[in-house]
Batch of 3 targets.
Target 1
Amino acid sequence: MIRLGLRLTMNGGREAAVRLVLLVAAVGLGVGLLLIALSGVNAVNSQNDRYAWLATGSSARMAASSGHDPLWWLLRADRFDGQRIARVDVAATGVSSPVPPGIPRLPGPGEYYASPALAALLRSTPASQFGDRYPGHPIGTIGDVALPSPNSLAVVIGHTAAELAHAPGAVEASSIATTPPSGCDGDQCLVGAGISAHGIDLVLSVVALALLSPVLIFIATATRLSAARREQRFAAMRLAGATPKQISLIAAVESTVAALLGVTVGFGVFFALRSPLASVPFTGTPFFTSDLSLSMPDIMAVAIGVPVASAVAARLALRRVHISPLGVSRRATPRPPKAWRVLPLLAGLAELGFFVVHGRPPTTPGEIQAFLPGFLLVIAGLVIAGPWLTMTGARIMVTRTSRPGALIAARRLADDPRAGFRAVSGLVLALFITTVAVALITTQNTTRSAPLDGPAAANVLADPFLEDSRTPTMPAPTAALLSRLRGIEGVQGVLAVHAKPGLTIPAKRLGKPASWGAVPAGVVSCAQLASVPLFGRCPAGAATAAFPADSLFGVRFGDFTWPAVSVPVGRLDRLGIGDINVATNGSVPAVERARTLLEGAYPSIRLPATLGESTAESQQKDIQYQQLADVIILISLPIAGCTLAASIAAGLADRKRPFSLLRLAGAPLGVLRRVVALESAVPLLAVAVVSIGVGFGASAMYTSAEMQEPMAGPGAAYYLITAAGIAVSLGIIAATFPLLRRITGPEVARNE
Amino acid sequence: MSLIIEARGIVRSFGQTPALRGATVEVAKGEILAVMGPSGSGKSTLLHCLAGILTPDEGEVWFDGKRLDALRESERSALRRDRFGFVFQFGQLVPELTAEENVALPLLLSGTRRAPALREARTWFARLGLDGLEGRRSGELSGGQAQRVALARGLVAGPDVLFADEPTGSLDSVTGEHVMNLLTASAREQGTTVILVTHEARVAAYADREVIVRDGKVSTLTGVAPAAGLTQ
């Protein structure tokens, strides 16, 4: 019987071959995506492991805890032309001081190891812009084992223990961290790569819900292709004496063969796409190709699980029909969905609405308990309500239309709304989740202080020195340093902000909410300020003025008049330095030469960054999640289109004879095209509108209740990507039109 | 009596297999013509050529003064939709539509509004003994009922010619006779010409005239040859 099943599957005529090819393609695509998702998680874990050593400083591996000589350790985020560099300054205190991975020994004073990408950058860039920042000379490259990504920029610089012992932020470590941190702090967040453990869970959930659901639904729909003809064949075999068990076995063999071939194709898809996908910076940096790997349990789960699941699905599908020697009959006519199905959706929206009216819970766990069930209810509610909404819409269309195409399409949708909705149900999740994600990210970005953008963002290099109260005050810049900075081609002015503990500026004056109170300030020379109009101005006649300390992020200062302070200009040099802000023309040589000069003069905790770099870094995670949302939309919409196309093909095969006879009787092909288009495009567009609408509604309620801000609409990119995805889906649907012409031609009616 | 359809020397092959080898036939207005012949003789091919579904490789087909085989496909489709009706052996009802919507379909395709189309369709249910079945789907109808619905659909738009290809082929003899009685009575009532393909003599007996297709050629068996006078 197994041989007969194999014979029917592999050599069962043209129709069986087409069915096999489609099924193999569907399973192959699904398995390929599944393997990519699994390997992606493995790659993120590898990336996390590879940069674990950078967390050494935060792990409090103090000397007392082991017998090793401690290692002085100072990690900072350096930058070059917008790229981040992990700069690690180390100093051994003895021969047994721990050595970071990727290098054979600790660099001595005047030596450093650079990652291959950084070494290449050093070779290709003038030393005054880059190389002069790193004291000494290179003695080798850092191995891949210590690099999150092939293009990671990292440098390990050697010092004497005495040098680093006095460096702000340096710590003593007795061992190198080997496990990725559960969270990051300070510069670790900037130089790190990958996604935190919490992030992996999130990515897995999002991928599973939003990406794999459409794929699985696509596979399930593909198995329905030519189902009617296949079932008729089984009935003929029953007539010839086959038992129901034998029929089940043949069906299982057919499905398993298709699944095995599909799994093979899926592995092929995975290995074909592995290398190009590795270069896509999903986590902010590319992966090593070898990091996109599969563990043995992954391989076994997919290679065995998919065929087994397919055989079980075939068995379940046969239970829906009764195959007797006299033919095939459906076990039951699907009952129409009931109106109660809309209740979970309404309950979810009502739950979110409740907190809009009554305010959010006071604690974070309370907020999670309040909002998470609401969103989950809305997601489940959309899926549950889908068939009822489809049926209701179709019934309205039935009563309103006089066009035969619309009538046939609406009747089909109203008859079996579950099948109509099933083809697009994966989209509900994808569109809802991405809409909420994009809306919340946009709102969050909008409610933050408006970032300083335009030319100024890239042009101003800020070097902050006052990290916290423990940071020693640095001396004011010397006249020589200021002169060298001003002498750099492209530098337009330098503003030194002198430390004045206790001095503040009312937040309201900076355009911030009054609830912020006051922001710390330093003192600037009005003569200097006048040379850099970008930073505002002093009141007329003032010699010195208060100026925000530490950070310029988020405020446009050009129109500000800063309050005068009673500090004589002559005393400024005796105050320590808070910040040095260098205005440039934005050119890379100007910015990087100034940065190199400042880093040499002030090896402070935080290295200088332009305002544009600071803005981008603060939004890095949001941008990654937005990228992920875009990826989900772009993948899930075409997959839904494929599902619809498979569903159309299956529906056309079922109605081949009446449709071809209708054409034969003079019905224009356009009428049948309208039937196909409406049967598929209407659910697709309706689901898109409902999912996006509910997504925006839920987001608006959440932002109102939780952020106490109105929801900000996403940018044009979201709409463009969504529209592009829908257009691709509609294009896939339109691609079935030639099939319609072919299978409803007069020859079909003659030969059926 | 004037001719409504005339075929002259039609040749039609499918690949290397010839189906018609110079078939000639004339059909008069209002006539019921039975086309008989053994399986594979080419009778369905002849019907499809007469209806403009297939175009002959050689020869001419004339309908009401127009050369049918020279028309474009869109024109022939329009002609089939507006001037012809069809009844086939089985499986011609759209499964999603109710019986009355199936009957109304040719009217809807011709642009009639839904309400008047359905009103007109319903009048056929009483005439064909289908009262009470208006809301049923094709899967809920017996073979005879489905065939009567198909007959109503073929006649509802008042076609000039009804093409019936083995209309009783899937029915038992009693039901078949009932359907044929209704078909001929309704056609005569409307003055519709009927071209009936069948291999059953008792079905052909309902026709005014019978022709037989054998080896791709047509020969007259019984009845009176239609008068000349086809308008060209």
Target 2
Amino acid sequence: MVPVTAAEAPRTRPRLWARLAAVREETALPLLFLSPTILLLGVFVYWPLLYTVYLSFVDWNFVADSKDFVGFENYSGILGSTLFNDAARNTLLYVVGSIPLKVLLPIPIAIGIWGLSQRMGDIYKTIIFLPTLISFVVVAIAFSWLLNPFMGIIGEMLRLVGLRMPAVFSDADLALWGILGISTWKIIGFNTLLYLAGLATINRDYVEAMRVDGASDGSIFRHLIWPMLTPTTFFVAIATVIFSLQQVFTPIDVLTQGGPSNSTTNLFYMVYQYAFVTFNVGFGSAGTVMLFALMIIVTLLKVKAFERWVHYQ
Amino acid sequence: MSAMTLSPAWRVTAHVALLMVCFAIIGPMLLVVGTSLKPDNEIFSPLPFPVSPTLDNYAAILGDAAFRTYLWNSTGTTLLRVAGQLVLCVLAAYAFARFRFPGHNALFFLVLGAMMIPPQLTMIPNYILIADLGWFDTWTGIIVPNLAMPFGTFLLRQHMLAFPRELFDAAEVDGAGPWRQLWLVLIPNLRPALGALAIVLFIEAWNEYFWPLLISETDRSATLQIGLRGFLNEETGDEFGKLMAGVTLASLPALAIFFAFQRQVMQTFVSSGLKG
Amino acid sequence: MGEVNLSGVAKRFGETVAVEALDLSIDDGEFVVLVGPSGCGKTTTLRMVAGLEEVSAGTIRLAGEDVTARRARERDIAMVFQNYALYPHMTVAENVGFALRMKGFSAADRAARIARAAELMGLSDLLARFPRQLSGGQRQRVAVCRAIVREPAVFLFDEPLSNLDAQLRVSARTEIRALQSELNTTSVYVTHDQVEAMTMADRIVVMHQGRVQQIADPVTLYEAPANTFVAAFIGSPAMNIVTATHDGEQLKVPGGALAAAPAASVGVRPEHLTPGEADGAFVLSGSVHLSETLGGETLVHLKPDDGAHVWQVRLPGHPRLTTGDALTVSAPLAHVHLFDEAGTRIGTAA
């Protein structure tokens, strides 16, 4: 290096270049790292949302050359359709049925696990968690056979004691409850884990202290456990609503394709039916846009719930 | 110090209730596995377990060329997808955690926002796009649209933010630029988090049904989940043993990985539930 | 070759000024300590020298070269961090050799230099260990070892001893100073501990609220502090600094008076006050308020009769004084410092 006399050093050129290099490193580099993610999200998430809005105003079937602009006809068409009516009603039923089964039932399970010794609790927790790992397709196939009235093993067992197995998935009155049941089987362990995460924040010394003070199990639950679990419950409830809307798609598709006579379809499956069963892209897109609006509302609620949840922790 | 917090009476009640729940969870699994081990002549027997267990059903399903193709497609698409997702997550998380650049918050919001959008809301344009790109019924079509992983980006960013800043400074002084700081200093210390994320991503990809349902058509790309569903539609009654062997095999990888790395996987699953 | 030159170096975070325009020239081989209370800007200054923090204004030169816009990895410096910043996944040898690896040294060259540096630091037996298997003192030595192995133009130390216990800290500072003398490498050392600063430094930079208060060698700093902040910060127990009033003839303070020009306050170090009166000395009288035994000496709190201020007096040995005893002490006028309204030192009363 050539020693440069301090004061008269030629400052501008080398310094400018060095500074530009620093800016490149601080700005261009992270943007480069982010570019694949952003590009993919743009192409496969955000652009499709916009394009769906456009498609919701045209009449199209994926193959026709022209996309005719039809204004709000797709929307009014959906709102007036039987499929929408049935899907909306079923969605409500799924949600209402999910509350006791997937939101409330895990609470005593979680408290039970939390209250037992670590070792026993871990064993129960692990077993209950297993369905989370198994694909919904496998779960649906397994139950379709287990509950098969003619060939399923449960049917055979019932026959031994003189009972008849109903055809759950081909009975319009039962099918939805069948799907609700197996989706409960699949998710209950996961929700239990969420509650356990909430319970983990309770300091067990408090429990000991309350016991020393002579508090009953009932008052420990009322004054210590329940206040801690309320925000978790709210959060799990909203997360489960989203799950019920979105994830039961798979068992519906595997087991009933929305039938019999629309008795198991929900709003998500309805969109799929319009777009990929009847190839009515306009209806499918209009339905998607309405669903998106619904999702935004639910998601905002969920974020609120999560903030409260974290706040309590 | 025992961690027990229930009084003895409640403890007994809890054990009884939890045993019942566990039975309800594990019973169906055992019935499926039991049936998969039954010989043909026992398939319709009401006994939950085979009298003379056999691996014939497994031999039959593995002898099925279509099943082997599905297995291959599932393995290939899953591994490639997870590898790609991990690389993209690491890069994006590093960008968010380590740098302050114009648009930082807006882009982060964009990534977080994508986490809230289920695939059913984007399926129509994506279906058209995949067809236009000529990716229909290909591994590329199954893998590429899923490569960006907002949840993984978020999770890794959290771990990176918790990483001591001083170590980046030390590496910088030692002469390592941002790229070498990432791979030589940060990543080796994030192994547990990366491992847990990889497992969760693997299970998710392996079990994926919705997207392949839209764009898989033939054996070129159909995965196990799509293939099994096809079996359900075409198999006749006496093939149930084979089908149950198929679903058991399809569930094994996820279960095996889970039992190997239990604790971390459960934690990561919980955090995915909290955010996703 | 290792001189450091800061001219007009300043750092702002938004509206907040962390470091005000600072000029400092450090000679090759000099050991300079930046000292001050937390938040005084000393660490920020060090990080700017390191290149870990961008300057808001000013120029930094290392060995005559303008490095202001260069990143840390492009400056010929090595740094020891407060929490040592050892890479947890690397062995001691890998930690020490990391910088050499980044510079592209061959494995053989690296091994030789690591071995030499480890021997110098007494770490030869620990090279295969991981940081988590080391004690705090050993980690600190590894951090120093990692810095010396590179043979840089300048060492930077960011409170490297603050995580050690008191005993270890004393031996470690002796060791670092000895090492630095041996290597004769320019060093900039940040600490909040004035004892550390006084014992180690060739020259000390006292900082307060982002501003340099005084740059001087330890003795000058002690004997002629530039202002009340430096006077109070350097020395332990701290200098007595008392507001004074002038009645035209004498400068009056609680418990005493002296013939001197007007000044806003008067400062006397506790160790410069000795029992008894002396001619032409500054005399204080009052009663013992409290007496603390420090071991070889005793710290007496002297309360004047008017009670407006308690003087601290450091007496040798164990004078048997109890609360309420009358006591008169005095200090030579050369040790009585006078400060003006702004706190700037005018001079001594002599």
Target 3
Amino acid sequence: MHETVLMQNLITTVAQALENRNVVRVNRVTISVGELANALPDALSFAFEAMTRDGILKGAELEIESLPAVARCDACGHEYRTDGFPIVCPVCKSTGFRIISGEEVYVQSIDCEEE
Amino acid sequence: MTRLDIKQDLSSLSNRKAAENRNKFNTNGVYVINMMGSPGAGKTTLLENILPKLSAHVRTAVIEGDLATRNDALRIEKTGVTALQINTNGGCHLDAKMIEKQLLKLELDSLDLIIIENVGNLVCPASFDLGEDMRMVVLSVAEGEDKPVKYPTAFLNANTAVITKTDLLPYIDADVHVMKKYIAEINPKVIVFETTKKDGVYAADQVVEYIIEQVKLKQSR
């Protein structure tokens, strides 16, 4: 439900990145969305489209890549991709872990045309 | 065409604010709880019942988050504890910036504990760090024993869970042991408490004791 907040942050981030550059058009913004980020790709696309009717991002495409959830085992330190719940270390079978990625939403890159 | 590699976390702005809040809490020795759960889980009722006991031992304030109304803040104020109300006007979660604004209204150096009751929602609040020390999930047995596995992200970063309304167990089809097993499957580090109301008495003393212990622990460091 907070996809609009994320897209508002995206617009701010892109604007900052394009500062001091002579960008005439943005073709594509690529973002990575963590599997545990509670953000739905469809809702992100919808928000992006609705919020970029004007400005530098007008007409730009939003490409969304999925970012896998990765846990680090508390017991043996092994880092592994989680596959649903329960989260169990494939090496030592411990159920103690910390999520080290997969909760975030990243702007990866901006494809644009400069003058 | 030019490709600009940005690699920036969209939550970084909000995470920075959360870190600033955490810094303020630490400097002033204030322990902070971010309480989250579905609408109707019993978050405010839990607070109403633990606050009189808590505030006898630690100086406490509450920040209430709801889409609309001051109803919850009014309920809290009846316990004699200061309550600030945030209305998100439709927003599905509290963020660190909203908390920062409220902190200006509180004398942090004369507080030991702040409990933030997040917007009733078991999804979005989980993605927003407010700067808290403890993340507490409140869920009632009436929501179904499989709630933890249906909404896992809320439990992933939780420190404690409070299962409420266990006095309803004889009347509903839910097994509290199964619920606890599910919580442990998502995050075995979560410390689980149960609350019950029998003969008009709400029992949550273990929650009170644990919170006081954590506040003292932080302040002794």
